[in-house]
Amino acid sequence: MTDKHDDACGSQACQSPTVESRATGGVAFRIANMDCPTEEAEIRRAVEALEGVRGLRFDLSARVLRLDADPLALQAALAAIRKAGFDPQPLVEADSTAGRDAFAEGLPRLLIGLLVALAAEAAHYFGEGTSLGTGLGMGLSLVAIALAGASTYRKGLAALFGLRLN
Questions:
Q1: Do the domain assignments include residue 68?
Q2: Which of 23, 65, 107, 149 has the fewest other C-beta atoms within 10 Å?
Q3: CA 155, CA 43: separation in Å to the nearest integer?
């Protein structure tokens, strides 16, 4: 039995006209502030029109981009990625676990942020109706945001000012 969908899958209409999604070779870069598909799309848009870029491969969980390009195109692609607001740093293959290690290093800060956020909730709950409870809750909330969520706010403001809302 033949499936009618076979003709459409993998056809020219489904393929990207620019940069391949997988790079088999190339150079690996760690991009610390790349952690979601929206940022992947921003990087793709930044380099898709460049001649000489053969492929991109993203590992968002490790925050690694593998870029396969000619030497001149590689420099142009890195400049375009930096212009888009990202900072690609060369990654040595022996350091391929650096993204996971960086997450482990940031984990205590996130846990402290969580505890401070819980303290803010407790201050609001037990001090409801008092200016001390309200002020303490607000102050602790700001500390929790600074510890765990400041990078998200920075990214949101950058997207807002750059008119790149998703």
A1: yes
A2: 107
A3: 14
